[in-house]
Amino acid sequence: MNPDMLLESVAVLTGILCVWLNVRQNIWTWPTAIISSILFGIVFFEARLYTTMLLQGLFIGISVYGWKSWLTGGPGGGILFVTRLRQITGLTLLLLTLVGTTGLALALNYITASDYPILEGLTTTLSVIASWMAARKILESWVIWIVTDTIYVGLYLATGLYLTLLLYLLYLGLATAGFIAWRDSYRNNTILREAT
User: Fold this and answer.
1) DSSP annotation string for 16-34
2) Torsion-angle region of residue 76: left (phi > 0), alpha (psi -120 to 50) or beta?
3) S-S: 109 plus which of 25, 54, 117, 134, CB 3.0-4.6 Å?
4) What confidence score (pLDDT) does residue 193 get?
């Protein structure tokens, strides 16, 4: 196995573990995400997917934030529970998606040799938003991941990153499972809060 394939393989395995832990709301998702992001940053640099590479740096920062948030971001500084997206937050995130996608696509078009500036801009923006939402345990983060992962599948098919493509197909399944698990957790926590 050549070194590039080995690196991509390890990145894929840590990525799978990270999402699986996230579905289970396991705090170890965050340090695993940091390791995975470092490895994927290298893979994407070599594939000339520059914003996707830079996104890994943002993921590291969001992972540190998520780690702290999950431990102390809940009521009274306690554990954070799954919540729903508020309408004003959703509208703000939609506006950020439009601005972020446009800005990144324009920058990529003029600064880099990116072959897919609009798709990279969109997936990068959506990934940052979904990661922030997951760090806050917002249920709808999984819907954003389903959309984003679907776009990434096409991007990785076009760029020949077949192991990463398989990873993102798996991510689609995990995102669906994550939505179901977090929805059930939200319902259970709502019932418990209403009972007390």
Assistant:
1) HHHHHHHHTT-TTHHHHHH
2) left
3) 117
4) 64
Query: Which DSSP letter does residue 47 get?
Result: T
Q: Provide the residue range defining the domain that includes 127.
A: 3-78+85-195
Answer yes or no: are the C-beta atoms of 63 and 27 closer than 8 Å: no
Looking up tokens 């696509």 gives: 105
DSSP H helices in 24-140: 29-46, 50-72, 87-111, 117-135
Predicted confidence (pLDDT) per residue in 154-184, tens digit: 999 998 988 889 888 999 999 999 999 999 9
Q: Is 0.85 topped by the overall pTM?
A: yes
How many domains is the chain built from?
1
Q: Answer positive or negative: Cα dihedral of 111, 92, 66, 180.
A: negative
Cα separation of 148 and 49, whole Å? 15
- Give me the residues paired with residue 83 across strands: 138
pLDDT digits (tens, 9 = 90+) for 97-123: 999 999 999 998 888 878 899 998 999
What is the DSSP secondary structure assignment for residue 74, as one 8-state letter? Answer: S
Tell me the DSSP string of 140-164: THHHHHHHHHHHHHHHHHHHT-HHH
The secondary structure of residue 84, as a DSSP letter, is: P
